[in-house]
Design a protein that fits this description.
heterotrimer, A: 525 residues, Dipeptide-binding Protein, domain 3, four-stranded antiparallel beta sheet, 17 helices, 19 strands, 32% helix, 21% strand, B: 287 residues, mainly alpha, MetI-like fold
Chain lengths: 525, 287, 309
């Protein structure tokens, strides 16, 4: 009998809890006004805190990885020889004040800025540049993924350096690649231990320490470019895996900038007067890669059929809720040399059926069940549009099974030739140079797809030797893109849109298509 | 027969908290079994115009959607019902599996005590208990595809050692009892004896623990799918719904809050039942 | 008795070794490896080179022998992702989690005793029922869910306490409250039960009859009386507590052992996972072993009855 009242008290407390919860609700309708100064977090305004969705990798050696979190901090610790204006695609001076091709149209000569010092106090000279470029393009280094061949570097004098592809043939992407290649100190390169344990650059922020998934930086007071010197004294770059935790930290003021905001979080951010949303169309595209070594994916017509069966507009508008850009080529619209690709597959189920029949599988007869691997918790909405694509394929008679995978397992599957028939991936090259994408995916052996298409390989080699920008762009448009569209080693689903949220007192934060973030330009209002 | 029913009824009358728990569990089971016929909407059907509708007591609620909708306008009641089905199915079966594993291990161990088999089995039990469960669960669910079956197996790992230990000590105690010695003297094998007298002590000792273990399994299941290492969409689990809703929590709290409250109510009911059973079977506590 | 204790310690050692072996093998069975997570698009040769660097290039048995040899020398390996020895990573993360656990235990014990005793003293009044009701309720709420809800209410809406990371002791408050809740609930119920037990003891009845209805002596007595059950409870709750700690750290982005272990699994940071699992399970096993030995010491009856275990 005594228990009766216990039950009542439980019900009462339940109601209490619910009422507390309901109490939270009005705040969504009427934006909250209270507490401009959040919970004891910002004692002073000389620290900028950024929460990263990706964690650092172990090696600080910029040539030892292709991890975005590291690339992001390298961007503010190091300088580059030249920089690309992300809008006009114009190349501007960085550590190099002038550059020109020599008469052979193959060798690039660069003049370096005088009086630039590394954070450890040593002077920048031509040997630093030479050693850096050699190391980056050394095909045994992981970051050589961006370089098709080793680059030879010659020191002419203290401030003059000459770069030449080892094949002796012109390499058009060279100058564009210099726009994202951080210049390291040759003393560090000689001593690998130092390179791996420290970030020593010439950039606006100095590396202080790395501890507990957090990287601390302090402004470089002797930065050579006074106009672009860091505006906030301390900068903290911290890894927080969970998107909801990142947003909560931004809301409480514990963080100033967060990346990889999910489209679901947008209403919350827009409803909060303390927060701002920033978006930018990325160089990154999301792709459905066909694994050539998994028959029947080596069948060109089957790949075409699948590509025509995917309703990409619905994915962009409904599933991605508009936070994605419609793809019209196998490179993003922000890339250098972009033009809509002729013959780029569009949604056309009738044509898809016809192609499927031509491929030898009328209405999917005789086709085994295909596996479609995708990652979970890494890219937004992969499962949602994965389900949708599976339904699209079912419409034309292709049976397909979605296999969601934990991130590390998916990464492994991505770079294994026979892990699945199709696999979802994204590709965020560090620069706007198109070869960083099409070269990586289609030059034999193409990454992820493991395709070896001689015709495509040859035309890509030819393209990369045209050093005249206009001619190269024309060649890409008329020759290269249509051929990729015919072979479709992977189907591009959409251009990624990067979503950032910042506190409303954060000014000067301009996200870029390559996801490099110029934190040194940020200041507090 | 009627005598027995009377006894049960009087037990229920005397223990209203057990009765309430039982009623909630019966309702839960009903929902779990008939989920697909009683859901008001297709739990997978999105309707963008109704998205993020609040529950009925808030202004702006959409008629029909009693507990509101999620971010693509799927009805929350329907999704919660399907989630209950998944959670209940997985947790009941996982505890069942745990009992079977635990009984087998405990029986073999108890019968072979003292001996090397007993020692080995007990060390395995210790290893299982000493291994941080959540870590083990993550590793196993990365190793094998997270399906309903693998989730059941993983969850059963959490609770089998306890059953094994209880059964083992029961078997050991029984083996030493006088009447067993007598039966032995009369030529019965120790295995038969142990099985025969099993019911005497084993059932009362596991019955009160069972509801608590099921409750634990429900919480862990929802946790695993919340961390997106458990049941994967499009399968609906209460943890999945909470995880989906987390991005909207400051504007649409109900998507995360309601499945949590549902988990809480089910676990509460199981705890109430377990409490009563514990007091019933352990007279020391029954004061 | 010494023999029993020695056997216990030996058994504990076997279990820790078993757990280490299982972790070691399972980690290498799951797809992907640290070289892949460090440089996803590296070529096979580059991966091999990385693996050599990381000391995971050899066949699994060779790796294991090396690992054990290193362990003997007190070296737990190197975390390439943290750029530090595993022991250094642990040394930094352990205090974080210890603060959390310590706070949680203090909260649980203080409120458990306070509310448990209050409930027992006022048994069968509305106070008792309210306390008992709340304790069942708190025990029934999923830990991670409470965390999310509290972050919303306390941090985001009311802006009372910070919610993520660690920059000072304030950051430990909210997670430790969440961690303490279920344990408090269990303690309340157990303390109430053992108090009720004492109240009904003849000794207390006699004391009352003699006209010394002193609650303080009663509390003193029952507290002493409930020490053994509380010890047992702590042993069984420890596993739950450690598990919850991982989850709570995940929800709060709190940089302790739990967060490290989750990140390490995601990145396949083999040696760090091994070190952390060994740490957690050793802690669990040693505490339980100590409790067992404590029993043997405290209670001669158990000494006899437990001969078999």
């Amino acid at each position: 009998m005594k228990r009766n009242k216990k039950v009542i008290s439980i019900v009462l407390s339940l109601l209490l809890l619910l009422s507390i919860l309901s109490g939270c609700q009005p705040s969504s309708e009427a934006p909250e006004q209270q507490g401009t100064e959040p919970a004891g977090t910002r004692e002073d305004k000389d620290t900028l805190t950024m929460l990263s969705a990706e964690s650092f990798t172990g090696s600080w050696d910029p040539t030892g990885h292709t991890i975005l979190a590291n690339i992001h901090v390298e961007y503010i610790v190091f300088d580059r020889l030249v920089n690309m204006d992300m809008e006009t695609l114009e190349i501007k001076p960085g550590l190099a004040t002038e550059w020109k091709y020599l008469e052979d149209r193959v060798t690039l000569e660069l003049k370096l800025r005088e009086g630039v010092k590394f954070h450890d106090g040593t002077d920048l000279d031509a040997s630093d540049v030479a050693e850096t470029i050699k190391r980056f393009s050394d095909q045994s280094r992981v970051a050589s993924a961006w370089w098709a061949e080793p680059i030879l570097a010659e020191v002419v004098d203290d401030l003059t350096v000459r770069l030449k592809p080892s094949s002796g043939i012109a390499y058009a992407p060279l100058i564009n690649n210099l726009c994202f290649t951080p210049i390291l100190s040759s003393e560090d390169i000689e001593n690998e231990e130092r390179l791996m344990n420290n970030l020593n650059g010439t950039g606006p922020y100095k590396f202080v320490k790395f501890e507990n998934e957090q990287c601390d930086f302090v402004a470089n007071e002797n930065y050579w470019d006074k106009a672009n010197a860091a505006k906030v004294k301390n900068f903290v770059f911290r890894y927080v895996a969970d998107p909801a935790t990142r947003l909560a930290a931004l809301q409480t003021g514990e963080a100033d900038i967060i990346e990889r905001v999910e489209s679901e979080q947008v209403p919350t951010i827009e409803g909060d007067p303390n927060l701002k949303l920033l978006t930018v169309t990325a160089i990154e595209q999301k792709n459905l890669v066909f694994k050539f070594q998994m028959p029947p994916m080596d069948n060109k017509l089957l790949r075409q059929a699948i590509s025509y069966a995917i309703d990409r507009d619905t994915i962009v508008n409904d599933i991605m809720q508009g936070y994605a850009g419609k793809a019209e080529n196998f490179i993003s619209e922000v890339a250098w040399g972009f033009a809509p690709a002729e013959g780029f597959p569009t949604y056309n189920p009738e044509k898809a059926k016809q192609l499927l029949a031509e491929a030898g599988y009328p209405n999917g007869e005789g086709l085994p069940e295909l596996t479609y691997a995708t990652s979970v918790g890494f890219y937004p909405k992969t499962k949602e549009y994965g389900e949708f694509i599976v339904a699209n394929l079912a419409d034309i008679g292709i049976k397909c099974k979605l296999v969601p995978m934990e991130t590390a397992s998916w990464l492994d599957a991505l770079y294994q030739p026979k892990s699945a028939h199709m696999i979802d991936t994204g590709w965020m090259p560090p620069g706007l140079e198109p070869d960083l994408t099409i070269g990586a995916f289609y030059r034999s052996p193409g990454q992820c797809a493991f395709c070896e298409i001689d015709e495509l390989n040859d035309i890509l080699m030819e393209e990369s030797r045209i050093t005249d920008g206009d001619k190269r762009a024309e060649f890409l448009k008329t020759k290269v893109y249509p051929m990729i569209a015919e072979y479709v080693p992977h189907m591009t689903l959409f251009n990624s849109v990067l979503l950032y949220a910042v506190r409303s007192d954060v000014e000067g934060f301009e996200p870029t298509p390559t996801s490099a973030m110029p934190f040194h330009q940020v200041y507090f209002k | 027969m009627s005598e027995r029913i009377k006894k049960v009824l009087s037990f229920l009358r005397k223990n209203p908290s057990f009765t309430i728990g039982l009623i909630i569990i019966l309702i839960t089971l009903f929902i779990a079994i008939f989920a697909d016929s009683i859901v008001p909407f297709d739990p997978a059907a999105s309707s963008p115009k109704d998205r993020l509708a609040p529950p009925f007591w808030s202004s702006g609620a959409k008629p029909g959607h009693i507990l509101g909708t999620d971010y693509i306008g799927r009805d929350l009641v329907s999704r919660v019902f399907m989630g209950i089905r998944t959670s209940v199915f997985i947790s009941f079966l996982s505890v069942g599996t745990a009992i079977i594993i635990g009984m087998t291990v405990g029986l073999i161990s108890g019968l072979s005590h003292p001996g090397p088999i007993d020692s080995i089995l007990m060390r395995i039990t210790d290893i299982q208990m000493g291994f941080p469960f959540i870590v083990l669960a993550i590793i196993i669910l990365t190793l094998v595809e997270p399906t309903v079956t693998s989730c059941i197996v993983v969850l059963s790992l959490a609770s089998w050692p306890a059953y094994a230990r209880v059964l083992r000590s029961n078997v050991m105690l029984e083996k030493e009892m006088d009447y067993i010695a007598a039966a032995k003297a009369m030529g019965a094998s120790s295995t038969r004896i142990a099985i025969k007298y099993l019911g005497r002590n084993f059932l009362p000792s596991i019955l009160p623990v069972m509801p608590m273990d099921i409750a634990g399994a429900i919480i862990t299941e929802s946790l695993l799918s919340f961390m997106s290492i458990g049941i994967q969409p499009p399968n609906i689990s209460l943890g999945n719904i909470m995880a989906d809703g987390r991005n909207y929590i400051s504007t649409s709290w109900w998507i995360t809050a309601i499945p949590g409250v549902v988990v809480m109510i089910i676990v509460l009911a199981l705890n109430l039942m377990g409490d009563t059973l514990q007091k019933y079977f352990d007279p020391k506590l029954n004061k | 008795m010494l023999a029993t204790i020695t056997r216990r310690i030996l058994q504990g050692l076997i279990v820790i070794i078993g757990i280490t072996v299982i972790t070691f093998v399972m980690l290498r069975l799951i797809p992907s490896d640290p070289s892949r997570t460090m440089a996803p698009n590296a070529t096979e040769e580059q991966l091999m080179q990385l693996k050599e660097q990381m000391g995971i290039g050899d066949p699994i048995p060779t790796q294991f022998v090396k690992y054990v040899k290193n362990l003997m020398r007190g070296y737990m390996g190197y975390s390439y992702f943290q750029k530090a020895d595993v022991s250094t990573v642990i040394a930094k993360a352990l205090p974080m989690s210890s603060i959390l656990l310590l706070f949680a235990i203090i909260i649980a014990v203080v409120f458990g005793l306070l509310l448990g005793i209050t409930a027992a003293i006022n048994s069968n009044t509305w106070i008792d029922r309210l306390i008992s009701g709340f304790s069942v309720l708190f025990q029934s709420m999923p830990n991670y869910w409470v965390g999310i809800i509290l972050i919303q209410i306390i941090s985001v809406q009311l802006k009372l306490l910070p919610s993520t990371g660690y920059k000072g002791i304030r950051y430990s408050i909210l997670p430790s409250i969440v961690l303490a809740l279920p344990m408090t609930a269990v303690l309340i119920r157990n303390i109430r039960a053992s108090m009720m037990d004492s109240i009904n003891q003849n000794f207390v009845k006699a004391a009352k009859a003699r006209g010394i209805p002193s609650w303080s002596s009663l509390i003193k007595y029952s507290f002493r009386n409930s020490l053994i059950p509380m010890l047992t409870l702590f042993g069984t709750q420890l596993g739950v507590l450690l598990g919850n700690c991982v989850v709570v750290e995940y929800v709060f982005g709190y940089p302790g052992i739990g967060m490290q272990i989750l990140n390490a699994i995601v990145r396949r940071d083999y040696y760090l996972v091994q070190g952390l699992v060994a740490l957690l399970s050793s802690f669990f096993i040693i505490v339980n072993m100590a409790i067992d030995i404590g029993y043997i010491y405290l209670d001669p009856r158990i000494r006899k009855a437990q001969g078999g275990l």
